Amino acid sequence: MKRLFLALVGVAVMMACSTASQLSDEEQKAYDFADELIKKMTLREKIGQLQQFTTRTAAITGPDGVKRDTEECIRNGEVGSFLSIRKTEEMLRLQKIAVEESRLGIPLIFGYDIIHGCRITFPENLAMSCSWDIDAIEHSARVAAIETAATGIHWTFSPMCDISADPRWGRVSEGAGEDPYLGAAISAATVRGYQGNDLAADNTIAACVKHFAAYGAGQAGRDYHTVDMSELMFRDRFLPPYRSAVEAGAVTAMSSFNDFMGVPASGNKWLLHTLLREELGFTGFVVSDYNAVHEMVKHGTAADGKEAACQAMNAHLNMDMVYGDYIKYGEELVKEGKVSEKSINQLCREVLAVKYRLGLFEDPFKYGRQNQEEVMYRAENLQFAREVAAKSMVLLSNNGVLPLKEGVKIALVGPLADAPRDQLGAWIGWGEAGRSVTIRKGLEERFGAKNIIYAKGSDFRAPIKGGIEEALRAARKADVVLLAIGLSYKESGEATSLTEITVPEAQQALLDALKKMGKRVVVLLGTGRAMDLRNEIEKADAVLLTWHGGTMEGAAVADLVSGDKNPSGHLTMSFPYCVGQVPVHYNNKITGRPRKGPEHDKKYLSRYMYTPNEPLFAFGYGLSYTEFDYSDLQVLTPEVALDGVVKVSVKVKNVGKRDGEDVAQLYVRDLVAETTRPMRELKGFERIALKAGEERVLEFEIPTSELAYCHQDLSFHTDKGEFLVGVGADSNVELTGKFTIK
Ligand code: NOJ
User: Fold this and answer.
1) What separation in Å is there between the alpha carbon of 252 and the centre of ligand 1?
2) Which of 463, 610, 673, 685 is buried most, with the most CB atoms less than 10 Å from its CB?
3) Taking the CB of residue 232, how many other CB atoms lie within 10 A of it?
4) Continuous segment of H or E residues that includes residue 728
5) Which positions are annotated as active-site residues?
6) Distance CA 544, CA 617 (A)
7) CB 353 within 8 A of CB 30
């Protein structure tokens, strides 16, 4: 009881705070509209706006939701939103009921997981982040928004801003990897892509900052697991991508499944109100994750659904996804004085304001009316998807076998060689496997069908009868083997945690057999997560990380293996040496007993006994068919004012024989600080294209505000002091420059 009382006191404060935040004219107009409407609404109707349901025919993205009479609850004003409906006509039909048959005609908002494309499926998000091409990532979200709006969906549950360095967690495929600086750039770009400049336009959709917060830090990589870390660590390494998505104007956010400092996110007022709204300035609405309000009962912090709803409402969580505790208990909670009507009004106005900003009150049917034939799968967008896929792929090793020579005969083997569904990865939105250009198809088009001898060879986790023999027969007829192995789409995304992150045995057996017969083997590795690739690196002549590359994956693979394009992707997640190192990330702290390198293999140092500290492939790593040389690093501002800008230049030369693209990465290290700092941190990057022999001087500008960090009192600011800096093609670059903030 005491807990409920305190919560209620908190709510009064909460209302005062959230109305105090700075609103744009557009937001103010939306809130004014919402406030007028709220005056006409019954308490039940207001709570109805806070309830999201799914329907019996919708895509299933969680455990069974409460089944209910969809139409009846729309008519009664007991629902404000639906998720995962896959049919345009169905959305338009339900909208019609809402607008024409409910008392106040308030339109519904339809949400869907459009994560890396709608119809055209782009590479999974982790893959795309390896392009380091922020404009391309923004454009992929723009294309997704245009296609999505045509389906009738108004709102995507993306971007996923969760930093993670744990490849056991399958959801790393949905994020931007391990680095907060790059992650922040990507999350903001994604929001801009979805929402455009005008949320009310009929080709923009609402974005959703998720999963708030720290969902990527679940213990031992197990999905939905406990998150426990210091606030200092959270602010330094996990918060930046959420913050930048909010700053980019995302109008919704999603609470995460996990607890945070002992309180489940959906009932965590510090997260959802104090941090998200008061500190970050978020003014939209927050939806819970799927059933996450009710799951507070299972977490053991609420006795029943009613208490869970009470905690969530008082924590400033606007919308209950699926379970239904809000509509079931909301009125009772108000009548009993456990949640104030003022709180309900606030929660409701934030939902109505987003509907207003999407233009739904003006025209509830403006989404889903477009001619889908014209909007979907546009040729220029497919071409763009092909380019993004190629830029996302990372060449991990190559003894010269790639690029392939013209006229070469290729044995194409492996469960991912002709796997239209798997190459799309997890969360395919409205994607269709039937539209996939598979690796087989891409290679046949590029090299001629007669030059491609295909054999599946193995399933993902089990051998197929005669599979190896068939693969060997194909290989005998060929000059080189392309072996497309890795993980299936079912091993990527939500609820796909793994304790072993090696290529499954059945597929390794294929590699062994092919290698033994003496053929050159190129591994095309399809996956949504970082993996332990020691075996493949040792045995294969080259390893190209193709990821789950989306609709156009096969064409992109053909572009790269043929040498029509030069690989240019760089890892955004370290590939561990072995799973025992996990989580392994480049920006770890130094410790009081650092091991300087393998040669310092002494006792009493921070090291493993039989294993290196370093991952097999570091953050930022990626090869090309040419070579880039970085030289002449100059710190143009050896002394900088506390509010100044650090300027650094470096010469980059393409010293190889082919044109190519590289990602120049700038890292700094804060030498002495109040709290321990990472060994190095990414603070700038640029994708560059250089012709063979071409040289360029790059100039980086880093505002000193980018060097801010979390102090003992949890304040976040920049200090005076000395820093090292370096620029190169991966996170192992030497930091030879120095500057001082005075
Ligand atoms: C659960 C997932 O965690 C979340 O990311 C997704 O948006 C919702 N389900 C809705 O499908």
Assistant:
1) 14
2) 685
3) 17
4) strand 721-728
5) 289
6) 13
7) yes
